Amino acid sequence: MQIQLQEDVLFILEELEKNGHSAYLVGGSIRDAIIGREHLDYDISTSASVEEMEEIFSKFKRIDVGRKYGNLKIGIDGKNYVEVTTFRKDGTYFDHRHPSEVEFVGDIEQDVSRRDFTINAFAYSKDGRLIDLFDGQGDIDRRLIRTIGEPLDRFVEDPLRMMRAVRFCAQLDFLIEERTFDTIKTCASMIRKVSKERVREELSKIILADFSSKGMRLLSITGLLQYIIPDLDKSFYLNDAKTKKEGFALEHMLCVLSSVEPVLELRLAALLHGITKPFVTEKSIYQNHVHLRSNMVLMILKDLRYPKNLIEQVVNIVKFYDMNQWNLSEKDLKKMIAMMGEDGINNVVKLREANRSCELREDYFESRVKNILHNKEPVSKKDMKINGYDLIKIGFEGIDIGETLELLYEEILEDSSLNRKDLLYQRAIEICKTKR
Known about the structure:
By secondary structure, the protein is an alpha+beta fold. It contains 21 helices and 11 strands. It is 54% helix and 9% strand. Strand 3 (61-66) and strand 4 (71-75) form a beta hairpin. Residues 298-426 form the CCA-adding enzyme C-terminal domain. Belongs to the tRNA nucleotidyltransferase/poly(A) polymerase family.
């Protein structure tokens, strides 16, 4: 396999080799090249120490990003920097992010073994040799996210890796391998050990991804979301105030999320705009609802350490997206546009359009099918809690058996709660009496 290397990446690899060091392109850029996906960040691993790298690239811009870990950023073209790291093995992780000590080693095999997932553990030489020790290519073919070694070990080292697994699913439309998935569910509470800033960055990447709704659903079913945004996780599975459907709010919010363009303030507003929906009844005072929603969104985003300006934009979008209920005059509407600016008011319009579209979809075929299957409602006669032998015992004969089964079947299709043996027996007895 041949990867087209950027000029600055190729130059760094060549210079390191000229000076007697081995060097490889590593990590996600190789994964994306295999998949055929664009990648903007490049990482190199080398046998050279930081001091040796500084000497080799003394004429170029350099940024020391972690000398003790062997990390140096090198800027060849004056614009972009490539992170170059000395081959190493990591010791125990003292803060669930950084190893307490590292051991610099002489070969690439030991270096890639410290990576998180198989699809990120590639190394590629400038002459086209691909190193894949953990069947990363196989997992790409299988569309799986799998940890290197024991999932528990990788997540104890850095619990953020659990969110990274979800993020890769949201970006690549992959699945999480079973043992890795089960371990995330078991260890979900460990995400509380990660700084809010790091959690925020992963959450932003998930909701901006091409398959953002898949990512949010995974955050919820793995148990991670209850520790990241507890109120949102609760709202997903409460009965909706209007439809009384369990999980309705989840489907609606994910529909809106995937329907708006991938702009951070708009995606955050789409995710959080209905956070109070399960708690609001038809008799609720609308202004109180708006105040509650705005405050909840404000507190959630502040807790995740989002910038003040972004928080203000998101709060305004969720505050005004259903403003038609306020019966705004032309004058007040113009004042609002002036306050929010053109981008802000356009985001309100975009959220309203997505929300309206998804409300129409809620009664569509796909949504209704999913609801029926999720609730395990009876759909065929074999799902009935009564059969022809039961009717014979009651006293039915001949064609009356089939006709009665058909009648009972039609009734439980209308109301699945009637599909209980005692209720069906009682109803069958009543029918039998009318036939005598």
